[in-house]
Amino acid sequence: MGRTADYSKERCSVAATLEVVGDPWTLLILRDAFRGVRRFDQWQESLGVARNVLAARLKTLVAHGVMEKRRYSEHPPRFEYRLTDKGKDLRPVLITLSDWGDRHVYGENGPLHFLHEPCGHKLRPGLVCMDCGEPVAPRDLRMVHNPDSQTVGEALADRELLEAEG
Amino acid sequence: MGRTADYSKERCSVAATLEVVGDPWTLLILRDAFRGVRRFDQWQESLGVARNVLAARLKTLVAHGVMEKRRYSEHPPRFEYRLTDKGKDLRPVLITLSDWGDRHVYGENGPLHFLHEPCGHKLRPGLVCMDCGEPVAPRDLRMVHNPDSQTVGEALADRELLEAEG
C-alpha cells in the first residue's frame, strides 16, 4: 500500500505523533523494540525490510529522541538502539493498536497476548483518567480548543531547538 | 512522506490494526469522525485531501465495517458516514496517539485537550487492566505467544467471510 500525507501543516496532536512515528515500518520497528529487539540485523530479520529503509527509519527515531544509539562493542564497532523514556511513552499507543487488532481482526485467536501477572488475566486494556482513576467514557469528555497553537511543523522545529540547547 | 509496507504477511495484532486503519489519511479521517464529521465535504475541507483519495479511504473503512454509509436525504440523494461500534472501539488508539503528541511534540500548548468533566481535570489518560482495575506497568505484563495464529491477510479474509455470512 502506498502512502502519502503531509502532517506538518496540521494543528493536531494526533498528526504530531503520526509525523514522528506514523510511518508504517516505524510502528513495527517500535513494536519490536518493546519486545526487546535492539540490533539492526534483528529488525531486518523480523521485518524483512530493505536495509536502507530500516537505516533511515532508525535514524529518524534517533533524531526525534524516541530511540538512542549506543555502541555496545568497540572492536569491531557495533551499535544498538534502545527506547528512550520518550519512546517508552509510546507503549499505550502500541497496546491499544494491538488490542483492537486482536479483538476485531483476529477475534479470540491472536498471535500473542499479554498476561497481566498481578491478577492472572489476559490483559484487556482500558483507559482511565489518571487524576480521578475513573474509566474514560466518551460522554464525559469535552474538547477544549486552544486558538494559539502551532502547526505540527512549527512545534517540532521549536522542540528541536529546545533539545539542541538542552 | 511516501510510505509502503505490507502488513498482510505479519502475524501480529498491531499489524492487523494498521492493515485496516494504518494509512495516514485514514487515521486523520477517523480523528475527524470522532469529532463529529460525517460528510464528505467536511472531511475534504478539514484535510485538504484529494477527492479520489478520500473516497477510496472511506470506501475501505466501510468495507472493513469501521464506518457505515447512510443516506440522509432522498432528493437529492446524499450520504453520510458514521462510526460503527467497531469503529468507536478505535477511540483509545486516537486518544493515546493524541496524548503522546500533546506531551512530546507540543509540550503544554497543544491545539486541543479533553476536559474530563466528572473530575474537572485535563485528561491525562492511563491504561488499566479491565479485570483488576490496576494500572498497566510494563513489568507486570508477560507475552504469551500463540503458535497457531494466522497471518493478518488470512485473518482478514476469514472475517470477511464471517461478516458476509452474517
Pair with the biggest interface: A-B, 87 and 88 residues
Count of alpha/pi helices of chain A: 7
End-to-end gap of chain A: 39 Å
Task: Report the portion of residues of chain A in β strands.
Answer: 15-25%
Low-confidence regions of chain A:
none
Radius of gyration over C-alpha positions of chain A, nearest whole angstrom: 18 Å
Give the averaged pLDDT of chain A, no decimals.
92
> Can you summarize the main beta sheet of chain A?
2 strands, antiparallel
Task: Choose one word for the global shape of chain A.
Answer: globular
Number of strands of chain A: 7
The spatial strand order of the largest sheet of chain A comes to: 2-3
- Structural class of chain A, by secondary structure, is alpha+beta
Helix content of chain A: 40-55%
Following the backbone from N to C, one meets helices and strands of chain A in this order, namely EHHHHEEHHEEEEH
Oligomer: homodimer
